[in-house]
Amino acid sequence: MAHTVLLIDDSIPFHKLVKAYLEPDRTAIHSVYDGEAGIAAAEKFRPSLILLDVDIPCIDGFEVCRRLKANPATQSIPLIFLTADSMSGRAVSGLELGASDYISKPFKPQQFRARINATLRACDSLGAATLVDGLTGLWNRAYFDQHVNQYASLAARWGTELACIMIELDNYSALVASQGQEVAGGMVQTAARIFLGQSRTQDLVCRFGPAEFAILVTDAGRKGADHLVERIRGEIDRQIQANGSSESKLLTCSFGIADTQIADAGGLADRARSALDHAVGSGSNRVVVARATREKTLHS
């Protein structure tokens, strides 16, 4: 399969070097030299892979990564950070922004090609499109399942907390029955935009099922996740009031929250799901936070 690589780096000699390294693999290289141009090129060309230098003009590589991962058009493109040896510690934190890997400069040609080709082969085998929800542009459950352990290990590495929010659109089946699939799909898209818009770029927002979503909230425990839920609920209320249609009034959500204080990576989503089940069972438009020995309903 033919591949295209977008290289975002301000060094012209380095671009020539990378092209020489990857030429034997017949990989096409798109070259840009600053962050703003890189963002535009990623959306235009939709490359197989983005190679991104951390230290580039205009906006740094971390901000470029944040913007790319916040844009549904580019968030599924794998990205590898390129860093100086002295910056490798910072680059590891870049993985929390959604990068697939990082490569330290200087590097040996054989090792560089091997890392690049391994990432491209992984993309071929998985198929990036299979990890993105077609209706909302969010990551799907398969992507969540593949990355939750990575998020948890990074949180443990840096001594930070990680929280999971499970969300269900209330009365979704009734909405489909009364309003039809097109209206219900529009409500799902509206909810997805709100969830993504109120979350930070380093958080992971996924669609789990027809009416279910999950958010991994980095650097935050139960309290931080609950604050995010309140922002989401406030934005839902604001949009309902601004819209005023009968369909918009049907958009309410129930939430379940858990964090790494009470569950490891393997059980985090399950505990959040259990809390969500309590919320749904208690009535619509509620928030339940998982505790060590019980789930606690916070809001109605």
How far is it from the N-terminal to the C-terminal residue, by CA?
A: 52 Å
Low-confidence stretches: none
Order of strands, main sheet, comes to 6-8-9-7-10-11-12
Global outline? elongated
Q: Could you give the count of β-strands?
A: 12
Mean pLDDT: 85
CATH H-level homologous superfamily name of the largest domain: Reverse transcriptase/Diguanylate cyclase domain
CATH fold topology of the largest domain: Alpha-Beta Plaits
**CATH architecture title of the largest domain:** 2-Layer Sandwich
Give the helices and strands as they follow along the chain.
EHEHEHEHEHEHEHHEEHEHEE
Helix content: 40-55%
Task: Give the biggest beta sheet.
Answer: 7 strands, mixed
Structural class: alpha/beta
Number of helices: 10
From the alpha-carbon coordinates, what is the Rg to the nearest angstrom?
A: 21 Å
What fraction strand? 15-25%
Give the class-level CATH name of the largest domain. Answer: Alpha Beta
How many distinct folded domains? 2
What key phrases describe this protein's structure?
300 residues; five-stranded parallel β-sheet; single chain; seven-stranded mixed β-sheet; Rossmann fold; 2 domains; alpha/beta; 10 helices; Alpha-Beta Plaits
Q: What would your notes on this structure say?
A:
The structure is a single chain. The protein is an alpha/beta fold. Helix content is 47%, strand content 22%. Helix 2 (35-45) packs parallel to helix 3 and helix 7 (172-179) crosses helix 8 (181-198). It folds into two domains: 4-131, Rossmann fold, CATH 3.40.50; 139-299, 2-Layer Sandwich (Alpha-Beta Plaits), CATH 3.30.70.270. It has a seven-stranded mixed β-sheet, with helices on both faces.
